Amino acid sequence: MTDDITQRIRAIIAEQAMLDPDQITDQATPADLGIDSLGLVESIFAIEEEFDISIPFNANEPEKSEFDISNMGTIIAAVQRLVAERDA
């Protein structure tokens, strides 16, 4: 299940960044991938829709959000946790 989630998130991010999903590494930051703040918000909305979850992210104050967006690995881990909580 977690591999499936990872692949789906990478596909969403890759579409936003106009990259191949294989180019999305866990260490890459949104900035590394060329994703600006608007692109990040659009990606988060797409992830919420894809997984039917609500991500605790405040676009106006991202540093105060409970959702760590520092790199793809932390984003993937947080989404996996939210999906597990939803399914519990």
Describe this structure in words.
There is one protein chain. With 88 residues, the protein is an all-alpha fold. It contains three helices and no strands. It has helices at 2-17, 37-51, 72-87. Helix 1 packs across helix 3. The longest helix has 16 residues, at 2-17.
How far the N terminus sits from the C terminus, by CA atoms, comes to 14 Å
Please write the string of helix (H) and strand (E) elements. HHH
- What is the CA-atom radius of gyration, in angstroms? 12 Å
Mean pLDDT: 91
Low-confidence stretches: none
**Class of secondary structure makeup:** mainly alpha
**Largest sheet report:** none
Proportion of residues in helical segments: 40-55%
Query: What is the β-strand count?
Result: 0
Task: Lay out the secondary structure.
Elements (H helix, E strand, L loop, with lengths): L1 H16 L19 H15 L20 H16 L1
Concise overview:
This protein is mostly helical. The chain has helices spanning 2-17, 37-51, 72-87. It is built from three helices and no strands.
Features:
88 residues; single chain; mainly alpha
